[in-house]
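Thread: phosphoenolpyruvate complex, take 2
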Amino acid sequence: MSATDHRYPQRGYPPVHLLVPVKPLHLAKSRLLDGGARHPAAHTELVAAVALDTVSAARRAAGVGGVVVITSDPVLTAAFAAMGVEVLPDAPAAGLNAALRHGDAALRHRVERVGALQADLPALRPDELAAAISAAGADRSFCPDRHGTGTTLLLAEPGRPLDPRFGPGSADAHAGSGAKPLLGPWDSLRCDVDTEADLRAARALGLGPRTAAAV
Ligand SMILES: Nc1nc2c(ncn2[C@@H]2O[C@H](COP(=O)(O)OP(=O)(O)OP(=O)(O)O)[C@@H](O)[C@H]2O)c(=O)[nH]1
Ligand SMILES: C=C(OP(=O)(O)O)C(=O)O
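Output below.
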């Protein structure tokens, strides 16, 4: 679909509803925990703070019609509900892409466009997410992480399935699925946090308030 798609001549493109999957806190971000730098309780607090900052920033981005978290973690479910964020349980509990496909199916009958955003973007700036969504137009698109191998954002074409291909080498997998790479100067959108080095990079960009307090 081209950026001048005739279906959206006057009002621009439909807003995207972003699915944000998060593992149960005690299982999430094991590579950060393996660094041994913090106590398990501090680790879960940090992972929760990162997810909350990510979602909070995403909700404030132009072009985002809503954010729906996919998780079975009870602490996260309560925290997001308190923020007024819709939460879907993790089904069929068969990994990240299965959870996203399930969320896509749950949403697509009631929204025009679905996307997926990683939950580990603690420096995310709403203006950078908005700029990436704008650059996507109505095309199936993805934003590679700062290493160029992973994916932080995937946008389906309006009315089309998300067809997520997250996992090792997902940037190539998404490009191979016909998605357009979004390669603008959006450091905060590209800085997902898997390791202590990633966390330092995010800190240099400026952490969200909950993450800043947790580190
Ligand atoms: N709901 C849900 N989210 C998942 C699942 N697997 C991964 N995620 C989330 O998807 C995002 C990307 O996953 P990774 O970057 O590999 O994060 P992770 O699995 O927590 O990290 P590692 O343990 O270090 O591999 C993270 O926010 C995870 O919490 C899953 O099976 N269900
Ligand atoms: C699952 C992914 O995240 P990460 O590479 O951070 O594990 C991905 O980028 O597809």
